[in-house]
Amino acid sequence: MIAQAQTPKGSVLIKNATVLTVTNGNLEETDVLVENGIIKRIGKNLNAANIEVIDATGKYLMPGIIDAHSHVALDAVNEATAPITSEVRMADVVNPYDIGLYRALAGGVTISHAMHGSANAIGGQNITLKHRYGSYNPEDLYMKEAPRTIKFALGENPTRVHGRGNGIQPRTRMGVDAVIRNGFNEALQYKKAWADYQAASKQRGANPVPPKYDSRLETLADILDGKIIIHCHSYRADEIYALINTCREFGIDNIVFSHVNEGFKVAPELAQYTMGASVFADWWAYKFEVYYSTAYNAAILMENGVITSINSDSGELIRHLYHEAGKAQRYGELDDEQTLALITINPAKQLGIADKVGSIEEGKQADLVIFEGHPLSVYAIPQMTFVDGVKYFDINEDPDDMRLKVSASEALEPIFLKEHEHRCMHGVDFFFTNFGRSLFNHSH
Amino acid sequence: MTGTYAIVNATITTAPGNTLEGATILVKNGLVENIGSDIKLPPDAQIIEGDSLFIYPGFIDGASGIGISKPADPERPANFDPSNPPDELAGITPWRNALDYYDKNNSQITDWRKVGFTIAQIVPEGGMLPGKSAIVTYGGKESSNVLANNTALNARLRNVGGGRGMYPGTQLGIIAKFRDLYKNAELSAQHNRLFASNAGLARPEMNKTLEAFFPVLDKNIPILFEVSNDLETKRATSLQREHGFRLILMGVTDVKYSIEAIKGTNAQVLIGFRLPNDKTASADLEGKTDEMRGRTIRIKEAYQEILEGPALLEKAGIPFGFTTMGGRSSEMFKNIRLMIDNGLSENAALAALTINNANILGIQKFAGTLEKGKLANMVISTAPLFSSEAQIQHVMADGYLFDFDISKKSSSNGSNGKTIDIAGVWDYTSDTPAGSSNGTMEIKKEGDTFKGTITYDNPTGSGKASSEMNNITLSGNNLSFTFNVSAGGMSLEVTVAGDVSELDFRGNMSLSDFGSFPLNANKKPNQRNQ
Predict the structure, then answer these.
(1) Cα–Cα distance between A262 and A196 in angstroms, integer?
(2) Cβ <8 Å between B165 and A81
(3) Is the pLDDT of residue B164 over 80?
């Protein structure tokens, strides 16, 4: 095993906390020992030499919160110029200087799924980021062990951007499904062309000519081969149902639905055929396709066996996902463990990283948050946030100006008077003319 | 190019760190015939007294847009599909040759020759892959002045289309497209090789976009990657690690943040000498709140970091060359002196103007230093080159001797009383990582004030919209104005402010809630006795 670790890994002993493991119940007055970024031991009266000891008496320790739908730390969100852009990679445009990363850490979030926007039926490949804030190198933020994921989008956004904006398919929901199917079918042809070429190359004396390389179709072929988890922006039950059927037809099991406001209508199907749903706590009615919604959505899905998570899709909401999760107790009466699962082990499962993070278990990565007050309490305030055992946020050592890089050429940096709501449509407005793109960062 | 000159008894710096006092340089037919303190002069040599002269190798510009015009926008076909546009419309023209868009009689060449440049690598304008550069010399009028052709493949992380939704539009699409093109170029080359040596194969499909990459695949020429911040530098070096091409990074900034990324590659570095204005020079920290004081101090520190950037590269042992892109000839020496004041050695500064660029451009065999047998390109100054009183009296380029009037030091940037004439038509581009937009500004002088209109991409449809420019204020070399954009029932006020000179504007466009984006403009030449 070659130690690849160039990102910081820390050691720390957190003593005497109420440990909310999420998967193994709650442990009172318990210590957690972290060595080199891994949770080494959980128990009582632990000791360790030469590492920092944190007294967490009276405080709560929970796994680092995971946001399954985010656009924080991205320089560009939508390559909205074609209805299928599976070839683009969000990893290429990560911006490690985004102060949103630090704000998320202050809200206890250690991992965010940095996604392509919802302008295209098939968007780009997302990147799972660990909030290792402080590095100048975008690659230091990649969670390299995380599996590949890709963004799909159904409904009003792709039909507005391409159909209404550019007069190209898709213009309707059936068009969206057709675009996806056509993409998959072309990918199958592409796969076959390359398989034929590889087979022909193996024959003695043969000199086959290689087919054209197309990273877009290659990525779609990888989806069909189960190598990439689809995260699909969707609201309406009919479109969710239709895509589930399309996936079944193409043999795709690795799909998570995102937003899913009408998910409660198709909960059994989501439970049986998908890797779950990632929803808002109580956000709806900002578009026609989002009218038929309920705050009980998360609870209903959970009770019906759907792996459910709550996401932010917003640089503002990400700062208090623990409150958002708490709403699922108010509406639906989920118990503490189920509710905490919404922002820890469940999004970890949806991102394919549940064996590494998402709960406090020996052997897992030390992404941890210390809370003052139970996280689901209205009075909860995150105190310290650790990623890989390194403390990236401490409320008692929180300077006013945490920017990593400041521009020399502006006299005063602009202050955003209102943070925009979910940035799924960031960069795409008014039929995505570019001036509008710069000016009007409205979303959803 | 014919003729024999001898400059006698001068201080000659043949290369950084090697200065000869009281020496003579003998030039014959544009080449250095001899340098030394006691050399024999042929009888037909034109003697120039060099007692008070300081001679340096002629400067080489690592990347230049001087004299380059923008290619005309090709017409869109009737069945134009923005998600799959033809390469030529989509800014993918790696086969274009900078020489086809180069005017060797452009007056700006004179401005740059005046500050010592004798050779330049010219870079084409365009989209993400605008074409290939060439190397020219700033010699006399009789020659074509071309030293070399197709010397580098240019690339950048911005595209054309003004954000009209053409693929690829953002850095996401551009980087993905670059990978696809590179990979397909490799496959195309492979197909060509197979076809050449085997029978019974389908013939290769000739594709000039892919063929333009072939000399890059062979490592015969590098990719000249234009970068505008440290994240773009990292994206370019990332692509280099993936594909293995030779890389020149053009326009490296934010050195403190880029340096680790550059160290990890064999990339060569070109930096501009344009520096931002010291925005906090006159800031009074006393009366400010704690927060404002903290923020002001950070801007001061950021400014300081930029000044120290070149010194940081030198300390890290990374040789770099200067590029004139984005810079103004009137401020070049002032800015280089600032860099020297902040830690850059004079030798490194001179190397960046001469031998380092010769190495980067691959012309070190005949340029970059003053040596017997090399081109006689020289800069002749009245004082040590980087001293504040130095003026360039002569430049020899390609064997031609150019004389400059040094009787008075001319003012620069209109800061000494001369008002800049901003009236005219300006082409501007505004960039965000999510795409660029462009348009024109037309400014007219009316009595004591200015009036103008600005065009921009229509936010509620296609084509362009226009608005009146309000509050146009010109103060020294600062220009600012506002304009309103109406869309969807809202009216937004946009503020534009920045530094202006006779021909260009560099500033920012900002809106209270949405942030600030760079906006750069070039003035179209006024239509007068052209």
Answers:
(1) 43
(2) yes
(3) no
For residue range A286-305, list pLDDT tens digits in order: 999 999 999 999 999 999 99
Residue among B82, B459, B517 whose CB faces A81 most closely: B82
Residues A144 and A235 in one domain: yes
Interface test with A, best of B83, B172, B482 (most A CBs within 10 A): B172
A435 and B457 within 8 Å at the Cβ level: the answer is yes
Check if B202 contacts A (Cβ < 8 Å). Answer: yes
Three-state secondary structure readout of B422-457? CCEEEEEEEEECCEEEEEEEEEEEECCEEEEEEEEE
Structural domains of chain B sorted by starting position, each given as residue range(s) with its CATH number in brackets: 1-58+368-410 (2.30.40.10), 61-367 (3.20.20.140), 424-523 (2.40.128.120)
If asked whether residues A4 and A60 sit together in one domain, one would say: yes
| Interface contact B294-A137, CB threshold 8 A | no
Rounded average pLDDT over B121-145: 94
Same domain for A113 and A215: yes
How many CB atoms within 10 Å of residue B187?
Answer: 17
Q: Go through B306-340 and write b for each residue having 16 or more CB atoms within 10 A of its CB, e for each that does not.
A: bbbbbbbbbeeebbbbbbbbebbbbbbbebbbbbb
What residues of B are in contact with residue A89 (Cβ under 8 Å)?
A: 172, 175-176
Q: What is the rounded distance in angstroms from the CA atom of residue A393 to the CA atom of residue A378?
A: 21
- Find the CB nearest A137 among B166, B234, B277: B234
- Interface residue B205 vs chain A (CB under 8 A): no
pLDDT the model gives residue A98: 96
How many CB atoms neighbour CB B2 within 10 A?
A: 7
Contact present, A213 and B187 (Cβ < 8 Å): yes
| Distance in Å, alpha carbon of A418 to nearest chain B alpha carbon | 7
- Judge whether B278 and B251 are in contact, CB under 8 Å: no
Output the six-digit token pair for A13. 């002993």
Does B466 contact chain A (CB < 8 Å)?
no
Strands A277-279 and A38-43: unpaired
**B517 touching A (Cβ < 8 Å):** yes
Tell me, yes or no, whether A431 and A390 share the same domain.
Answer: no
- Looking up tokens 């398989």 gives A195
Banded model confidence at residue B29, pLDDT cuts 50, 70, 90? confident
* B83 touches B167 (CB < 8 A): yes
Q: Contacts of residue B202 in chain A, CB cutoff 8 Å?
A: 209
Structural domain of A31: 1-64+358-396
Residues A302 and A156 in one domain: yes
The answer to whether residues A386 and A334 belong to one domain is: no
Do A384 and A338 reside in the same domain of the chain?
no
- The pTM of this model reads 0.87
Q: What is the number of structural domains in chain A?
A: 2
Question: Per-residue confidence of chain A (444 residues) as pLDDT tens digits?
Answer: 333 447 999 999 999 999 999 999 999 999 999 999 999 999 999 999 999 999 999 999 999 999 999 999 999 999 999 999 999 999 999 999 999 999 999 999 999 999 999 999 999 999 999 999 999 999 999 999 999 999 999 999 999 999 998 899 999 999 999 999 999 999 999 999 999 999 999 998 888 899 999 999 999 999 999 999 999 999 999 999 999 999 999 999 999 999 999 999 999 999 999 999 999 999 999 999 999 999 999 999 999 999 999 999 999 999 999 999 999 889 999 999 999 999 999 999 999 999 999 999 999 999 999 999 999 999 999 999 999 999 999 999 999 999 999 988 765 544 544 444 445 655 544 333 333 333 333 343
- Is residue A103 domain-shared with residue A122, that is, in the same domain? yes
A410 domain-assigned: no
The answer to the question of residue A86 being in a domain is yes
Question: How confident is the model over A189-212, as pLDDT tens digits?
Answer: 999 999 999 999 999 888 889 999
Residues on chain A touching B184 (C-beta within 8 angstroms): 212-213
